[in-house]
Automatic annotation (TrEMBL):
Pfam families: Pyr_redox_2, Pyr_redox_dim. One of its GO terms (molecular function) is dihydrolipoyl dehydrogenase (NADH) activity. This is dihydrolipoyl dehydrogenase. The active site is at residue 539. It comes from Gossypium barbadense. NAD(+) binds at residues 261-268, 284, 357. The lineage of its organism: Eukaryota, Viridiplantae, Streptophyta, Embryophyta, Tracheophyta. It is found in: Plastid, Chloroplast stroma. Residues 437-548 form the Pyridine nucleotide-disulphide oxidoreductase dimerisation domain.
Length: 571
């Protein structure tokens, strides 16, 4: 599941030596800040830096050379290339790869058939956070108990639906524009059209009704992302039966909305809709809500995010048929038992949101031209994100990142994968440690996690023969949380007592999405608990929740005399 930093679904997904380049932009000291997987340039910060000579280096390339090729030559790789790297898809993953490629001196092009920014910027992470910012403010203002505890008096809070929708849309437009401008400024060629692989190291692109252009590249990255998954039997009309794409436009706030799926997407929208006055009914196929979370965190989250709010739920059921509202009739949802398949219930609601995860957008990529067949729509790749063909051989110079490969459907995971691929094609072997990539659900309060859940850790321990330790700390013991009157929360550490390895960290509480990165970076760098215990945290801050968490763990191994342990694992 994921945050509505969408590229992640309600259910988690499964995942050459550079010899010549044409530098587009010489950057001596690149700065790699990222925001929700977005490079800093998306927020209007300059990506240009000064070289040691004090001069700023720009790219002054014009349009790429158009190369014609007959269908008969598609089976052979070209002898010379228009680009060092072509990326198909300009979402967060493609954007991260493109900018890192430029920093590495690669002549780079990115092909986009829709709009720059992909799901995250236009229909996911960015606009959803705008809506959730509103829901968070509304919850505070609506909580008389919370306000009184702080000594505040507030009159009845209200909202303007169109104003809220405009806030989300304007933010997406701003980030999309900054993203586009950042790539142009750094010399990335943005080629407009639908990209299709026509042979080894060869891609065609173009718009409907216009001739196709063919370009070649030493390396190609597929970064086409995903689309909302809609199960059979569900009729989406975009008005009363909607996906997250429609919901983010906030064209209406229904009195009663059913949300099919209780993963990240469903949870975040339940937070928005209930804050704005809707009643919500969850429909979940599994026997418990929030099935992708650590069970202990899920139970606490249900007690805080579900039970006190205007939310009811049906678990262990499938929505086999959903009919949009029409002719004065409501939306009709037919439910069956997930196990017996017997009819269970029929619901009549004002609207239904389909939040059953996302499906890879890989149709029409031309994978058959390089002997590749998708698996449930996902492009098969190895641990280095190299594409695998039907004979289980690697396709030379072809990579796939992000939602399209299904390894981890999160925007920032796609960006990290893109950077990893660029490292490889410029001569540095690099394997991304996906267990070090954090995830977050931006409800109020937030949920975040990295690594294994407790059941996953215990299963691994049983197979490999080690013990599992669990440590917990409460937000109720944190000064900053109490000052904010936000003491509801828990942090949980899953680790190996024998050597101090961090297996997983799960947080539910105020700013959990921000707090998780200390743990994810520790996993990425191979830092052990016995070493991180010596880290100093400012007081009073929420970061002390993690400080107390690590200090409460019992580890048999001694601290390193030389500082943090570093293992050969990179993010």
């Amino acid at each position: 599941m994921h945050s509505i930093c969408f590229q992640a679904t309600g259910v988690p997904g499964s995942n050459y030596i550079f010899d010549s380049c044409s530098p587009a932009l010489a950057i001596s000291k690149p700065i790699n800040l990222r925001f929700c997987g977005l490079r800093k340039e998306a927020f209007g910060f300059s990506g240009l830096t000064h070289s040691s000579s004090g001069r700023v280096h720009f790219s002054s390339r014009g349009h790429s050379k158009k190369v014609s090729a007959s269908a008969e030559s598609n089976g052979s790789p070209p002898k010379s290339f228009d680009y060092d790297l072509i990326i198909i898809g300009a979402g967060v993953g493609g954007h991260g790869a493109a900018l890192h490629a430029v920093e590495k001196g690669l002549k780079t092009a990115i092909i986009e058939g829709d709009v720059v920014g992909g799901t995250c910027v236009n229909r996911g992470c960015v606009p959803s956070k705008a809506l959730l910012a509103v829901s968070g403010k509304m919850r505070e203002l609506q909580s008389e108990h919370h306000m009184k505890a702080l000594g505040l008096q507030v009159s009845a809070a209200g909202y303007d639906r169109q104003g809220v929708a405009d806030h989300a849309n304007n933010l997406a437009s701003k980030i999309r524009s900054n993203l586009t401008n950042s790539m142009k400024a750094l010399g990335v060629d943005i080629l407009t059209g639908v990209g299709t692989i026509v042979g080894p190291q060869k891609v065609k692109y173009g718009k409907v009704g216009f001739p196709d252009n063919i370009v070649t590249a030493k390396n190609i990255i597929i970064a086409t992302g995903s689309v909302p998954f809609v199960p059979k039997g569900i009729e989406v009309d975009g008005k009363t039966v909607i996906t997250s794409d429609h919901a983010l436009k906030l064209e209406s706030v229904p009195d009663w909305i059913a949300i099919v799926g209780s993963g990240y997407i469903g949870l975040e929208f339940s937070d928005v809709y209930t804050a704005l006055g809707s009643e919500v009914t969850f429909i979940e196929a599994l026997d418990q809500l929030m099935p992708g979370f650590d069970p202990e965190i899920g139970k606490l989250a249900q007690r805080v995010l579900i039970n006190p709010r205007k939310i009811d739920y049906h678990t262990g059921v499938f929505a086999t048929k959903i009919t949009p509202a029409k002719d004065g009739k409501p939306v009709i949802i037919e439910l069956i038992d997930a196990k017996t398949k017997e009819p269970k219930d029929t619901l009549e609601v004002d609207a239904a949101l389909i939040a059953t995860g996302r499906a890879p957008f890989t149709n029409g990529l031309g994978l058959e031209n390089v002997n590749v067949v998708t698996q449930r729509g996902f492009v098969p790749v190895d641990e280095r994100l190299r594409v695998i063909d039907t004979n289980s051989n690697l396709v030379p110079h072809l990579y796939c990142i992000g939602d399209a490969n299904g390894k981890m459907m999160l925007a920032h995971a796609a960006s990290a994968q893109g950077i990893s691929v660029v490292e490889q094609v410029t001569g540095r072997d690099h394997v991304l440690n996906h267990l070090s990539i954090p995830a977050a659900c931006f409800t109020h309060p937030e949920i975040s996690m990295v690594g294994l859940t407790e059941p996953q850790a215990r299963e691994k321990a049983q197979k490999e023969g080690f013990e599992v330790g669990v440590a917990k700390t409460s937000f109720k013991a944190n000064t900053k949380a109490l000052a904010e009157n936000e003491g509801e929360g828990l942090a949980k550490l899953i680790y190996r007592p024998d050597n101090g390895e961090i297996l997983g960290v799960h947080i539910f509480g105020l700013h959990a999405a921000d707090l998780i990165h200390e743990a994810s970076n520790a996993i990425a760098l191979g830092t052990r608990i016995q070493d991180i215990k010596f880290a100093v945290h400012a007081h009073p801050t929420l970061s002390e929740v993690l400080d107390e968490l690590f200090k409460s763990a019992t580890v048999k191994a001694a601290a390193s005399s030389h500082g943090p342990v570093s293992e050969p694992v990179a993010v």
